[in-house]
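Shipment paperwork, digital attachment
Item: protein structure file
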Amino acid sequence: MCGRHVGVSTLRNGHAPSRSPTISESTTPPPDGAADTPADESVADISSSPDEDGAHDEPQGRYLWLLCLTALGVVFGDIGTSPIYAFREAFHESHGLATTEENVMGVLSLIFWSLVIVISIKYLLFVMRADNHGEGGIMALTALVTPPDDKKVRGRRTLLVLAGLFGAALLYGDSMITPAISVLSAVEGLEVATPLFRPYVIPITLGILLALFAFQKRGTSKVGLLFGPVTLIWFVTLTAMGVASLWHDPHVLEAVSPTFAVHFFRENEIRGFLVLGSVFLVVTGGEALYADMGHFGRKPIRLTWFGLVLPSLLINYFGQGAFILANPQDIKQPFFHMAPEWALYPLVVLATMATVIASQAVISGAFSLTRQAIQLGYLPRMLVDHTSSKEEGQIYIPAINWALMIACVGLVVGFGSSSALAAAYGVAVTTDMAFTTILFSVVARRRWRWHVLGVFTFALLLLFVDLGFWGANLPKVPHGGWFPLVVAGGVFVAMTTWKAGRRLLAERLQTTAIPLSQVVRDIVKSQPHRTPGTAVFMHKDVDATPPALLHNLKHNRVLHARVVFMSVITTETPYVDARERVSVTPIEKDFYQVTVRYGFAESPDIPDVMRRCANKGLRFEMMKTTFFLSRETLVLTDRPGMMRWRKRLFHRLSINSLRATAYFGLPPNRVVEMGMQLEL
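Attachment content:
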C-alpha cells in the first residue's frame, strides 16, 4: 500500500521531515483559488536523483530498536496475518489439490521462494532504494519515472504516469478487502472451538469492523502505542506454534530447495499454476514495506524483516505444513488447529487484535494516499481532519472512511467467508506489483544510469514472477476479483477526469488572464478609494491577476488599505522545509506577494502561514483581514476539450468538492466569495 501507516510519519525526526524541495511551479492558474497543481499531467517534477545508496541519516542504538518495534505494527501487520488463511487457501477444494507429501512440500517451497524473491530481494534490497526525498510508495515512485522537461520521452512519461495512477487506484480496492478478509478470518477461529459460534461469526466480524471505522475520527495515537508490542507478541506466537509442529516433523524444512517447487509444477501442471493465486496471499502487504519507508527509514524495516518477521513467517508456514502431513483432515483451518485446546480462545483474541492492527494500517494508508492525490490535483478537495497536533501523518478523511466501511460491510455480508473473499483478493495487488517493477526499472535506467542489459534482465526476471502471480489470479476475476478492478477503474477515471477538467478550465482562464504587474500599476496610478484593513486575494498563479480582485474593483469600486496576493503551491516533493514554507515579496507600496509551498504529503494551513508571515515583517490582524476567493459556477457546453460524459462527471465532482474556506482553514466570517461562470 501506498502510504500505509497510522500516523507515525514523524517518528524518525520527531517532527515533519525536513527536505530540501525542488519546486516545479506552473504559470497556469486553476480556478477557485489555490488548491490545484500545475496543468502538466505529471505527478512530480523532481530534479534531484533518488538516494541510491541510502545516504539518509540512519537511526542508531535504542532509538533504532524503538523504530523497529513500532514498525512491526504499522509495516508488517498485513503480511503478518497472512498465515491465518494463506496456507489453507492453497489446498482449497476449488484447486482439487490433495494433501500429499509431494504437494505440501511443493507449496511450502513456493511460499519460501515467494517471500525471498518478492519481499526480500525485490522490495527490501532493490525497490526501497528508489525514494522521493525519503518517501516511498507507488505515488512517490511514479514521481521519479522521467524528467518532465524531456520532450523526447513526454508521451512515454504520460503512459508511465497513468500506469502509476492506476496502480495507486488499485490500492483502494485492496483497502476495502484487507480489513474484511483479515478480521473475518480471525473470527472464524471461533468455529474451530465450537460449531455453536458459526451463526455469530458474521455479526461479530461486522461489529468489530463498525467499531474500527467509528474509532477513526478519534485518532490512533494512544492505540498506536500498543500496535508494536501486540504485533511482537503475535510474531512470537507464530514462531512458537511453528516450532511446536516442526519439533515432531522437521523434515519439511527440506522444502527450501526449489526442486520441490519445480516438481510440484511438473506434476500438477495447470492446476499447480493456479495454486500460485493462493500462494500469492503470503506476500500481500509487500507494498507496505515500500510505502512506509518514509516513516521509518530503510534500516529499521530491513532489520525487522530479516531479524524477526521473515523467520517467524517461515517457521509458522513450515509448521503448518508439518501439521497437515500429520492431520490432513484439518486442512480447512490448520492455523487454529495447530494451537492446543487451552490456547484456542486466547489465540482467536490475539489474531483478532492483529488483524485489526493490519486493517488500521490499511485504512490510514488510504487516508494518506487520498491526501496526496488531492494535493497533486488528481482528486477534488475533501475534508482532512488532523487527529494529532504533533504528528503530521495522523489524519482522518470522513468521506473515505465511510466509503471503506460500507464496502467492507458489503464484502463480509456478500461473500460470507474468508475463503470466498480470498477469491477477490490478489488481483489488484499483483497488478500493482507489476507496475512497481516497470516503474522501478525506468528509474534505475534513467536516473541511476544502470546498464540497459542489466535493467532489462532485472525487469525480465521480476516480471516473470509478477506476471506469473498475476496470471494465476486472473481466474479469480469472475469469482470476486472483479470487485477491486471495478473500484480501481472508477477511481482512475475520477482522478484523470478531475485532472483533465482542472487543466481545461485553467487553459481557458489563461486566455483572459491579465498580468498582475499591469493591474497593480493601474491601481497605483488611478488611486481608487481605499478602506481600512487588509485584503488577501488567493490565486494559484503568482503572475496573473486574481479574478476576485477584478470583480471587487468592478462591483465595489474600493480596495483595502493593504493588499496581499497569496499563492499556495503544492510542490511535487513530499515535504517542504519549514524555513522555505513562506516567502514574502513587496510589489508596490502596501501591495505584497505571499508564496506558500507545501509538499504533496502535507496539508495547507493558512492561519499558520499568517503567523509565519509575521516573522518576515508582514503582520496580520485577523479581525481586520478579509479573504477574497473566486467561486466558479460551471456551465456545460459543447466546446471541445473533453467528452460530454467526462464533463458531467467533472461537474459532479466539482459540486461535491470541499469549499476552499474549509480546506485552507480560513475563518468563515472573514471570507468573501466572488462568483463567476466558467464554460466547460
